[in-house]
Amino acid sequence: MRVVDAFAGLGGFTEGARQAGCTPVWSGNHWPLACEQHKRNHPESTVVCQDLQQFDWYELPKHDLLLASPACQGFARARGVDRPRHDKMRATAWAVISALEACRPRATIIENVPEMQQWSLFPSWMDALARLGYRISINQIDSQYFGVPQSRKRIFMVGYRDRAPRLLKNTRPIEELVPIRSVLDLSDLGFPIEDRARIAMGKRVLADPTKERIAGGRSRFGQEPFWIPYHSGNNTGYSIDRPIWAITTRDDTALINGDHMRILTVDEIRRTMGFPGHYLLPANKKQAKHLLGNSVCPPVAKEIIREVMNAA
Fold it and tell me: Per the structure, how many domains does the chain have?
């Protein structure tokens, strides 16, 4: 099955397609850094770097499956109040319609945050898919049920032109969920928590809310390792023997290990997202984490694409 990946970012969707046995033939994204990394990891695929709202979709190579992850920032709750830039981000969803109108592949999978369904124009957008002949199932997927040590909730809209889709299900029983402990290097302690030790090392003293979250975690776990949301959240800690919350583009998760703490490393986040260890990333840690936090989890993509292939 030949696959194209629109709004491809780091290439999580493409990587899932490759693992499912598909042939990635094209990807597109507006960010040069993302395009560069995509090309490094998928040299077999043509990579186009431009604003896809301006792309001539008739130039796409022949393909059977169109993957798309239009910008989610205009829909996600974390966006805050509406601003004009969010209207622009929401408009990327219409580029998917344009691509399908031009090429009419047999199947499509479109990924986004669940809040997209609350968009005032979502019914019109779905109607446009129907008018192009696509029969769509909206699948609420949590990555933790697909072997990823992270609870990342997304919708995957699967559409066919020649058959009715069936709803996909979260596949892994709860007793088989992968804990975040499995990807953590617990020998990497990071830096002291205590004020004087941090000052002596030239580190900033932790903010009071962070100290309160650490104290809350210690009341539950004692000196055993646990994690906290670094910038916000309840005054408590969370077990490393369960999947972690959704990874974002920020350094907002901290591992507390005895009297030390640190943020998750790039490699830990890569593995938490389900990317293989050999997957190439930018040397700049902030850029690498940003790309990872915006990605589709490859193991989730692989299973959904396999379902599409089996239905073909």
Answer: 2
